[in-house]
Amino acid sequence: MSLREKKKTETKNKIFEVSGRLFKEKGFEKTTVDEITKEAGIAKGTFFNYFPTKEALLLYFGEQKEELIYDLIENETMKGIPTKEKITNFLVFLAESVEKDKALTKLMVFEYTRYMVHSGLGPCEDKCRLHRLTETVCGLLDEGAKIGDVKTSLDVYKASEIITGVYLHSLIMWLNSEDKISFSNDISGKINMLFEGIGV
Amino acid sequence: MSLREKKKTETKNKIFEVSGRLFKEKGFEKTTVDEITKEAGIAKGTFFNYFPTKEALLLYFGEQKEELIYDLIENETMKGIPTKEKITNFLVFLAESVEKDKALTKLMVFEYTRYMVHSGLGPCEDKCRLHRLTETVCGLLDEGAKIGDVKTSLDVYKASEIITGVYLHSLIMWLNSEDKISFSNDISGKINMLFEGIGV
DNA sequence: CTATATTTATGACTGCAGTCACATTTGACC
DNA sequence: GGTCAAATGTGACTGCAGTCATAAATATAG
Q: What is the largest distance, in Å, between two alpha-carbon atoms of chain A?
């Protein structure tokens, strides 16, 4: 790795580290780019060489976290249990990880929405986090279809989208609640109902 | 109505009208509050007497539209059809109304997210649009429970939340798609699956 | 009609995100 | 090491959302 690349990652990490601390101390809104750069010992313009906007930092936070989570999933003891449980475990795991920092999650969800809405991200491609979630669930359901854990006639992809939708809604409701709800409990109850169906 | 109240509504309508036009012409971002107020013939400060932020305008747009829709629902020919169809019709109707202006819908969804995330709206109360949707669906399912259209053991509220979640997810996917999907078709397919269930 | 209170309007001003023309550092090649 | 090109750093500057002290308009009371 060249000197240039070394300095680059160094600077990016410095920004990441300082801003993370400041956001925790005083919140996202009240932290200015000026402060971040001053504490990081760089000029204001430099910040924008690394992150196109202040909000882009939030996206970066989210990506970092997501990587950790999806990695962990692979290593879980998920072999040999019914598909319903597999999916429930997966989503509960996601939920629990998110439950740890509500304020940050709020900001990230918000920023993610902005990202989806504003020009960036042409069609719903790789970068789309919801899409990735759907794909993962889809994989689990596909396996389930082979073992006979789900209806053979099932449109697996559509079902995955439904599950993602339920996850998203629970997340938003939880973010917007006054902590009376447990996000992870809510999710697992709903997955159950999805497998049973609503109609008689 | 006093002179004061008359002038107030007049000014608010003027702002609403001018900003609507400008947003369509040049988009939300590129329209400045200065422009809006100049065209409306008022001072900049006045704008903020009516809307706390520029974005609050979007919320107002949404509210106006929503009123129209929910009113229409009441008057629909929804008597005597199965619960599944009632709910499908309702959501398809919502979807179709939203499909008419994708760009504006994007902005409104985005702004709604911001609204939920940033301080405003303590716990998820009346003002929460998703909550209102859930309540409406819940009403339909309750009726359905009486006629025996849904499982008697069903947790009706939870089911409504699931349906709302599916609606929201479809909406977002559609907003983020390159117009290959029909939002309203997508919804009706998923409601069907929800009634059938996923498991064997 | 005058005096006083309350509500609404005003626009110069502030603070901050984001830009840009220019300076500095790094890498590559001789 | 010297020379040039490309990448990165810099901070004064710009544009816009939002504020606030003050002015104007309207309501209320005597």
A: 67
- Rounded average pLDDT over A168-185: 88
- C-alpha A115/C-alpha B82 separation (Å) is 40
Residues B131 and B92 in one domain: yes
pLDDT tops 90 at residue A37: yes
B195 touches chain A (CB under 8 A): yes
Structure tokens at B19: 């900003």
CA distance B102 to A199: 33
Nearest residue to D6, CA vs C1'? A4
3-state secondary structure of B199: strand
Tokens found for residue A78: 């998920």
Q: What is the pLDDT of residues B3-40, one digit of tens each?
A: 899 999 999 999 999 999 999 899 888 999 999 999 99
The range of the structural domain enclosing residue A122 comes to 55-196
Distance from CA of A152 to the nearest CA of B (A): 8
Question: Nearest by CB to A189, which of B158, B167, B200?
Answer: B158
Which residues, 6 or more positions from A122, have their beta carbon under 8 angstroms from its beta carbon? Answer: B178
Q: What is the pLDDT of residues A76-94, one digit of tens each?
A: 667 788 999 989 998 998 8
pLDDT confidence of residue A71: 75
Asked if residues A98 and A124 have their Cβ atoms less than 8 Å apart, the reply is: no
Burial of B56: CB neighbours in 10 Å, binned 0-12, 13-18, 19+: middle
Tell me, yes or no, whether A49 and A72 share the same domain.
Answer: no
Domain match, B13 and B92 both: no
Q: Please report where in the chains the tokens 């680059």 appear, as a residue.
A: A8
Higher pLDDT, B123 or B12: B12
Residues B23 and B67 occupy one common structural domain: no
- The arithmetic mean of pLDDT across residues A181-187, rounded, is 93
The answer to whether residue A121 scores a pLDDT higher than 80 is no
Nucleotide nearest to B48 (CA to C1'): D18
CB contact under 8 A, A151 and B195: no
pLDDT of B124 strictly over 50? no
Shared domain check, A185 and A109: yes
pLDDT for A77 equals 62
Mutation site for B-interface testing, chosen from A149, A169, A181, A198 by largest number of B Cβ within 10 Å? A198
